[in-house]
Design goal:
disordered N terminus; 10 helices; disordered C terminus; alpha+beta; 3 domains; 5-stranded antiparallel β-sheet
Length: about 475
């Protein structure tokens, strides 16, 4: 519908009726004279004639106007560009059957008192939402088996973006991981989950346009070896659990938690990324592929062939990442194969049996004779820095449980005593609010760094060009 302003005085309406009657007669004679048109905007119906609100006569469709008399016709855009600056965005008409047609009078230059003028639409050649030419590639950040990631720039508002270009092969079609990632991310809006801006589909490629984040946790830890500042570990872990709690409540598993998939912004925000292996988990449980999480962060139940798992799969990865941030080395860096990875886990947590892990003997790859018999240890014996921070060892031990059902959930972990010294307002934030909107919540400088290194105009590390995607 046309966007109309307030009704005018009766005498003005009477004048409008006379003007409209004159114009209607002109249409019937197929002779539109410029001097007869003294108002700017007229509502017409594309499919059938229809009265405009507040007017008592019928205006004929645009098709009845001679071609040489269709002057300065403007239509509101039917699509919305989220990258477009507010000043250049035009109003939308939601009804596909109606359009507002703007006529300019060369004689009077006056505007109809009953019709509000729409903003001028942007040029037909200007960048649009969903178009490949709306983004400029700046540099390659990384390359995987089916996708290449570029640092890019929006041509509309100049903001940096990350372009994940997925190659499409005619025989194979779109990779299922790309479809899965796009479909899941479209519905996820959270401060601790990377934001999907746009999807561009061409014959050769599918491009996912993400918000640009300067580095990831893997690079951040590489830049600060030996373990991170305890306060920063706490903030990073809190944000990780916050993002996981959000997706787990929506029955979505990430299934590939590792430092490379946790992005860190220049303000310290941690964002879950790379949902290529994520999937929505229905209830009741279905079986899934056990070839998922990267080996170092893969839980023992999956390593042993279990295909029935839930949110506890992700929580094992949280425990591994927690230890790595504090200690400065990977918790279980298997160097050979799955057997070696399991040996490293059992060395610390103890070799499981039916008493400590009900049902372990029924798992496809568990053969008691294949594993050395280890007894469980205190985690501080393996990672001494856990003892330096209050309640850190207890939280890590509740996340790193071999028996999946014993692992702490994300909401429960958020309420662990380890976080008791954080401001209470952190638990009251809305989904899209950053933890750094709470007063006095900020990152601390790592060892050997000045406070200025964490200013708004600095990044935590080098570009994502060496990251693994």
């Amino acid at each position: 519908m046309c966007d109309l302003i307030e009704p005018q005085a009766p005498e003005k309406i009477s004048k409008m009726k006379k003007l409209r009657r004159t114009l209607s007669e002109s249409f019937s004679r197929i002779a539109l004279k410029k001097e007869d048109s003294s108002f700017d905007e007229i509502c017409v119906t594309k499919m059938s004639t229809r009265n405009c609100p507040g007017m008592d006569s019928v205006i004929k469709p645009l098709d009845t106007i001679p071609e040489d008399k269709k002057v300065r016709v403007q239509r509101t855009q039917s699509t919305f560009d989220p990258f477009e600056k507010p000043a250049t965005q035009v109003k939308r008409v939601h009804s596909e059957n109606n359009a507002c047609i703007n006529f300019k009078s060369s004689s009077s230059g006056k505007e109809s008192p009953k019709v509000r003028r729409h903003s001028s639409p942007s040029s037909p050649t200007s960048p649009k939402f969903g178009k490949a030419d709306s983004y400029e590639k700046l540099e390659k950040l990384g390359e995987g088996s089916y996708a290449t990631v570029y640092k890019g720039k929006s041509k509309v508002n100049g903001k940096l973006v990350a372009l994940k270009v997925i190659r499409l092969q005619e025989e194979e079609g779109t990779p299922f991981t790309a479809i899965r990632e796009a479909s899941l991310l479209k519905g996820l809006k959270h401060a601790n989950i990377v934001l999907l801006h746009d999807i561009i589909h061409t014959k050769e490629t599918l491009t996912l346009v993400f918000e640009y984040v300067h580095t990831d946790l893997c690079q951040y830890m590489d830049k600060h070896p030996g373990g991170l500042h305890p306060d920063n570990v706490k903030l990073f872990l809190f944000q990780l659990l916050r993002g996981l709690s959000y997706i787990h409540q929506r029955y979505i598993l990430h299934r590939d938690l590792k430092p490379q998939n946790l992005l860190i912004s220049d303000t310290g925000e941690l964002k879950l990324a790379d949902f290529g292996l994520a999937r929505a988990k229905s209830v009741p449980s279905h079986t899934y592929s056990n070839e998922v999480v990267t080996l170092w962060y893969r839980p023992p139940d999956v390593l042993l062939g279990s295909t029935e798992y839930s949110t506890c799969l992700d929580m094992w990865g949280v425990g591994c990442i927690f230890v790595e941030m504090i200690q400065g080395v990977a918790a279980f860096p298997g160097m050979k194969d799955i057997q070696d990875q399991l040996e490293r886990i059992f060395l610390v947590l103890g070799t499981p049996n039916e008493d400590t892990w009900p049902g372990v003997y029924s798992l496809p790859h568990f053969k008691p004779e294949r594993f050395t018999l280890y007894s469980s240890k205190n985690l501080r014996q393996a990672w001494n820095k856990l003892s330096y921070v209050n309640h850190a060892e207890d939280l890590a031990s509740k996340l790193l449980q071999c028996f999946p059902k014993n692992r702490l959930s994300a909401p429960a972990a958020l309420n662990h005593e380890y976080f008791s010294d954080l401001p209470p307002r952190l638990w009251e934030l809305t989904d899209m609010s950053s933890v750094f909107t709470v007063p006095n919540v900020r990152l601390q400088p790592e060892v050997g760094e000045s406070m200025r290194a964490f200013g708004k105009n600095n990044s935590y590390g080098k570009s994502l060009s060496n990251s693994k995607h």
